């Protein structure tokens, strides 16, 4: 689909500032040059009360990944707070995403699958909310793709898993060396989040190098 069309309007939906670079950088870097790419983050990442700073980092990261800051949205909704123990209401999620989908005439939605890479409840809530949007509203011409979660073992195989994905994935996006440097720059833009284990993540996580997307039919 992506290779046969240009100028699709694509909306990536994430839960927190830095999700776009931690998990989806290969997708954004491969699709943003040929399509009209938007990123919608459903929280300011204010769990540690620095949401104001994380909003700035989000904009910088998206810019590095090739997404114009006018197409990078971050919202502060009382019902969608950054909290690993909070289950977001799927109806609220679907209604928020629906508003942006209709306003910008989106053709393709991209988000997490039912495990959300790490099992984070906010990630899973987006999966449920977007699926509800597709099921309930049936917007004509709208497609959904989800980022495939893998086992913890595969998650930290880095470039070794790229070889595995090349042989078995139907739809995957890979980072070239030049693109990986951009993905790294986007991660480093989130300076408030760069703890020691984030540097380990950069070194070993396959999501910095490859994204496998799964088309979802309704």
Relevant terms:
globular; 16% strand; Rossmann fold; 9 helices; 42% helix; alpha/beta; 218 residues; seven-stranded mixed beta sheet
Structure description:
The chain is of the alpha/beta class. It has one domain: LmbE-like (Rossmann fold, 3-Layer(aba) Sandwich). Helices cover 42% and strands 16% of the residues. The protein is built from nine helices and seven strands; from the N terminus they run βααβαβαβαβααβααβ. It has a seven-stranded mixed sheet with strand order 3-2-1-4-5-7-6, with helices on both faces. Strand 2, helix 3 and strand 3 form a beta-alpha-beta unit. Helix 2 crosses helix 8 and helix 4 packs across helix 5. The longest helix is centred in the middle third of the chain and has 17 residues. The two termini are 17 Å apart. The model has no long low-confidence stretch (mean pLDDT 95).
How many domains? The number is: 1
> How many E strands?
7
| Helix share, percent | 40-55%
Predict the CATH topology: Rossmann fold
Low-confidence stretches: none
- The proportion of strand residues reads 15-25%
Total number of helices: 9
CATH-derived architecture: 3-Layer(aba) Sandwich
The CATH homologous superfamily:
LmbE-like
Write down the secondary-structure element order: EHHEHEHEHEHHEHHE
The first-level CATH class is given as Alpha Beta
| Order of neighbouring strands in the sheet with most strands | 3-2-1-4-5-7-6
Q: Choose one word for the global shape.
A: globular
Structural class: alpha/beta
First-residue to last-residue Cα separation: 17 Å
